[in-house]
What we know:
Elements: H1 7-23, E1 27-32, H2 39-50, E2 54-58, H3 65-78, H4 96-106, E3 112-117, H5 119-125, H6 129-141, E4 146-152, H7 155-161, E5 173-176, H8 182-189, H9 193-203, H10 207-210, H11 219-226, H12 233-245, H13 251-260, H14 266-272, H15 282-295, E6 299-302, E7 314-317, H16 320-337, H17 341-373, E8 384-389, E9 396-402, E10 411-418, H18 426-436, E11 448-453, E12 467-469, H19 471-479
Helix pairs in contact: 1-2, 3-4, 4-6, 8-9, 8-19, 9-19, 11-17, 12-16, 13-14, 16-17, 17-19
Amino acid sequence: MGLIGRAAELALLDKRLRRVRSSGSGVAVTLRGRWQVGKSRLVQEFCDRAEAPYVFFTATKGASPVEAVTAFLDDLRESDVPADRELVPEVSTGSWPEALRALAAVLPSSPCIVVLDEVPWLAEQDALFDGALQTAWDRLLSSRPVLLLLLGSDLHMMERLTAYDQPFFGRADNLVLGPLNVADVGAALGLDAADAVDAHLVSGGLPGIVRAWPHSAPALEFLRGEAGDPGVAVFGVPEAALLAEFPSRDISRRVIVAVGAGDRTRANIAAAAGSRGGAVPSGTLSPLLRRLAEDKRVLAMDQPLSTRPGKPALYRVADSNLRLYLGVLRAVQEQARRGRPEAGFRLVERRWSAWRGRAVVPLVRESLELAAVDGRLPWAQVEAVGGWWNRRFDPELDLVGTDRAPVADAVRFVGSIKWLASPFDHHDLAALRRAAVEVPGFDPASTGLVVASLSGVSDSVDAAGAVVWTPRDVVGSWAG
């Protein structure tokens, strides 16, 4: 399977290369995205299509500066960038200023591309790397026809590279590469809308898993086929992501595992991630949750959405594939290692409906936000879609659409998600209407209803005036 989707991202990179060609001067771009989201594959595809000489250097975690610089010079010498390969030094002193001067000395007069992959690892190895890069860009590279692409998986470190108090501030365009969207996953695998949603939830939109997915196979069929092999991508990608970003089994890992297992509130997370000494203290947990949500982006925090501030916040694992791994697939992988694939798949079957019903909620919310921006909803000024709950979680509404977040001026709609084999029926509608009146800002005269359902609405439901949101609508928010 070739490159999946990414037409928009390729166009953005091509736009920068056209700028280099037209101006004759350099352009720098940082491209950040979570591990295994496909940054290197995207940039390699771009380089292959660009019809320009390029060098693609990938850093090695834990390498010494001498090893890193030597590898960079070797890649440079073997690429088609140097106008004269004899000018590339054979011996390295481990100095990045010298290496970048050597790069500048061999750049051709025509446009070329220089790719540095996993830049945060270079900064870890050498505290002077960031400053050396800034100096080389300002004095040697920015005036030459070069497109400099800086890639990295550590989102916080990549953001810091161009922060206002860092050497490279103001020198690069910043691009973020997210997972494949649900429409691209469905198109690549030849799936209808409902199966495309399932495939997106299972894969997390990660290309490494999508490429291993048999064409037109529904999610449960795919998982049945993988349940006997502990080394396949659906297990290996999330397992490796955890090891790459959280190599030690410390409290960070325990918190992520607790959230992945279904603990959503701060109190439950503290208890589940604690030890024999008791729950994790608030003074330890609060900054850790903030780091995992804001810096690492491995967790997401949801707040009640209405016209009044609400508590408590709820946490979830941001990547649905990692969420599935922590909640279900770790146990399935263990069964596979013991040679018991059928036992593993029975775990999937037992937990599938409950897991999918919760995992689909963020995707439905995002699809409604996109539809609102496109003017596909009957309510004006919907800019945020979330949920609402009180401290007792009684009631807990899946969908609330407002004009802003987290405290809105007006609630435009409320709604419920039923992602099951049975349709949304009159009991579900009655429960939605009872719960809706408790949402601060709900106005029965102006607040609409949304019903998101995998299996549509039963004939007994009078859904007049409500928006019925189906898998086709979810996929259509990305398909256009």
